[in-house]
Design a protein that fits this description.
Keywords: Signal. The chain is mostly beta strands. The protein has helices at residues 3-16, 112-129; strands spanning 29-36, 46-48, 51-52, 54-58, 61-67, 75-81, 84-90, 97-100, 149-151, 156-159, 162-164, 170-173, 179-181, 186-194, 198-204, 209-216, 218-219, 226-227, 232-235, 246-253, 256-258. The strands form five sheets. Strands 9, 12, 14, 15, 16, 18, 20 and 21 form an eight-stranded antiparallel β-sheet that branches. A four-stranded antiparallel β-sheet has the order 3-2-6-7, with no helix packed on it. A three-stranded antiparallel β-sheet has the order 1-5-4, with no helix packed on it. It is globular. The protein binds zinc ion.
């Protein structure tokens, strides 16, 4: 291929990069046209399983970006938009299994006190990741830290021989203290210390697009802070349930964890 042609393609795909890749599988994203943006001025309200869905404009169309739950069944699913149902197809996907050894077995088989804490925290985290703010979505993402991918999204996980929830993010190996960057512009929604996630920062990128950074050794932002893409939110660590220092990075659409790699 001629160099200039390749360059042109790179420029063109550069414009498309501000949108995630569609991959309509459990844990993936379905991108569904819902209205003509040349005649419909404001983003239409779209829901999936009762939750508000991210809608963004591209090439004269309003597109719904649907986060498909990891436990979704393959087959026909529906969006609700302006009183009508829009069908879309979810394809099957099998994720691989990962076996993980955790030294602190209380992180695998929590005692009663820890179990109570976990139940409360799950409710808090569910509320945070399901937040929908009306600002237009920012979909131009960068990798939040350099390093090798050591845990892919969606892997079924066996901790110390016990089956646990599938992996809800991407793990990036990096040394403790490595700066963690905001993947896109947004507003800090929440910071906290959770049993499994350790020190964590949630960032709202508008219209139900939320990112999360976990196991941090340090948090350097506070709720309400406005961030530009690349602003530092904290540092890599191994707090919570972690085998060693790494960044766990999650992205949520309509409250569902989706594969962050689809945004890169
Ligand atoms: Zn992880």
């Amino acid at each position: 291929m001629k160099k200039w042609l390749l360059f042109g393609l790179v420029l063109y795909s550069g414009q498309l990069l501000a949108f995630p890749r569609a991959n309509p599988v459990p844990g993936g994203i379905a991108i569904i046209p819902v209205a003509d943006a040349t005649t419909t001025v404001t983003a239409p309200v779209v829901q999936y399983e009762g939750k508000r869905v991210t809608v963004a404009q591209q090439d004269g169309a309003w597109l719904a970006l649907v986060g498909i739950p990891l436990d979704a069944q393959a087959g026909e699913h529906h969006l609700q938009a302006a009183g009508s149902l829009i069908p879309f197809e979810v394809q099957p996907k099998q994720y691989r299994t990962q076996r993980i050894r955790i030294n602190d077995n209380n992180k695998v088989e929590p005692d009663d006190e820890s179990s109570q804490r976990i139940v409360q925290e799950l409710a808090v985290q569910k509320g945070i990741k399901s937040r929908y703010s009306p600002q237009a979505a920012t979909l131009d993402f960068i990798r939040p830290a350099p390093g090798a991918d050591t845990g892919r999204f969606g892997m079924r996980r066996i901790f110390n021989g016990q089956q646990r929830n599938p992996h809800s993010g991407m793990d990036i190996a990096a040394a403790t203290g490595t700066p963690v960057k905001a993947t896109a512009a947004g507003r800090v929604l929440h910071t906290g210390d959770f049993f499994f996630s350790g020190n964590v920062v949630y960032v709202d990128h508008g219209s139900g697009v939320i990112s999360m950074y976990a196991h941090l050794s340090q948090i350097t932002v506070k709720p309400g802070d406005n961030l530009q893409q690349g602003d530092i939110v904290g540092a890599v660590g191994s707090t919570g349930r972690a085998t060693g220092p790494h960044l766990h990075w999650s992205v949520y659409l309509n409250g569902e964890a989706v594969d962050p790699a689809l945004f890169l």
